[in-house]
Design a protein that fits this description.
heterodimer, A: 397 residues, alpha/beta, Aspartate Aminotransferase, domain 1, Aspartate Aminotransferase, domain 2, 2 domains, seven-stranded mixed β-sheet, three-stranded antiparallel β-sheet, 12 strands, B: 143 residues, alpha+beta, Sufe protein. Chain: A, 5 helices, 3 strands, globular, binds pyridoxal-5'-phosphate
Amino acid sequence: MTGRRLVYMDHAATTPAAPEIVEAMLPYFTERFGNPSSIYGIARESKAAIDTAREQVAHAINASPEEIYITSGGTESDNWAIKGVAYAHRKRGKRIITSAIEHHAVLHTCQYLERQGFEVTYLPVDEFGRVSLSALADAITDETILVSIMAANNEIGTLEPIADCARICRERGVYFHTDAVQAIGSVPVDVRAQDVDLLSLSAHKFYGPKGIGALYIRKGVRLDNLLHGGSQEQRHRAGTENLAGIVGMGAAIERAVGRQEEYARRLTSLRKRLLSGIMERIEHVRLNGHPTERLPGNLNCSFEFIEGEGMLLLLDHAGVAASTGSACTSGSLEPSHVLLAIGLEHATAHGSLRLTLGESNTEADVDYVLEALPPIVERLRTMSPLYADYRRSCNVQ
Amino acid sequence: MYSEKVMEHFMNPRNQGEIENPDGVGEVGNPKCGDIMKIFLKVKDDRIEDVQFQTFGCGAAVASSSMATELIKGKTLEEAWDLSNKAVAEALGGLPPVKMHCSVLAEEGIHKAINDYRVKQGLELWKEKPGASHAHADDACEI
Ligand SMILES: Cc1ncc(COP(=O)(O)O)c(C=O)c1O
């Protein structure tokens, strides 16, 4: 391997802001800095820029601009949707339903609410990471006030049947929230067609800036505020607006949704090349997540007998940025809750590798990874007592 | 996140491999926690003539195995027994707090291998020193 090459394959973690997005944002740090709540000229310009961005976000998901509330990102949107509905409707019922594979922004919010006296059902998923509609229908009771199921999983890429979930919730008179942070720009999202009540999105996952996102709140849905203070966001989310961030999010979502189909087609083809290349070159590999119902750019595999962090360090040495569901990167000793929820053994979960493709990736990148990965896996297997045991058991037979 | 020394040992592990017909073997850890370490010893005249390791685990686990084996190679069994996890971590230029259990695993692996040797020799087992400062590696991972 000659030269230092950087192959970024961690687009599920974050994406780089596209140059034209940064360009669009820049004036709003300097000459167009006015506080949108003031009344003079430059303030009105700021207000107009926010209105435009709100329309861009609304248009991208087929909502009305008044239904878009700007937040600081996916985490805040998830917290607001869940806590907001929980607190506004606690008199009606204290039950919430979600899935076992949600992002921590949803799971830890639900766990917090459990400590506040709410009851949360965590729906299991099948081996591919899909929730069962009949299990959802069975879990809803008269006291259920909210169901939150993600549109697409960030680790294994599995797409959830959110339109079907939403239909069940509508029939039963329960609010339906979806965390669509990974879905926007990669798969079609339409809040009317899919009939969702609340939807979270985050700009840094679709080539916009970090620290900015939105919560779609269908007209008529009542929820408590999370942040109290000034009268921004139709009095529902206080705080002077992140003007440049909002402009960037608006431009980025328009760009992302405009090229969604082509993006999905391109990434699907790269992902298939990557997966078949890995399967051809390396033994004892398992694909995690759904074979077809998955995010176009998401590949998640477990390599038996080895541990994920070692793979990441060696890949990094080869200039490849990737991610793992192994404990070692989570700050705890438990592997990813998502990989355990789809039924993986601990050792197999520790050996997972997530490669998430995006705009910058080419066939040459894929081929580079296919060249770099086999010797890395081989090297770690040579080191592994689990592999030695396996080899011994083969020889005995 | 890792010191240069940890990375150096991870990239170029010392004593990685297996010893055929070892005089003592110690395997510690479990797949649930994501770390398994196996230490092989060749002993001559109460001295560690050769030591090799196999590790399933993160960068810190591999580096701890590598450093620990390097530190005990050529030492007497008593000296090897006295190697603490702290000494391993220090020799590596420190480990992140969540990775300290990797150095504990190395110490435990060596102890287990030494006692395996002692059992095979018909000698009595050595006991962990009372008040030994380290946490048991498994404590860090709820099993
Ligand atoms: C599915 C999902 N939900 C929520 C988040 C949190 O979003 P943010 O980083 O904008 O707070 C992420 C990103 O890490 C995500 O992938």
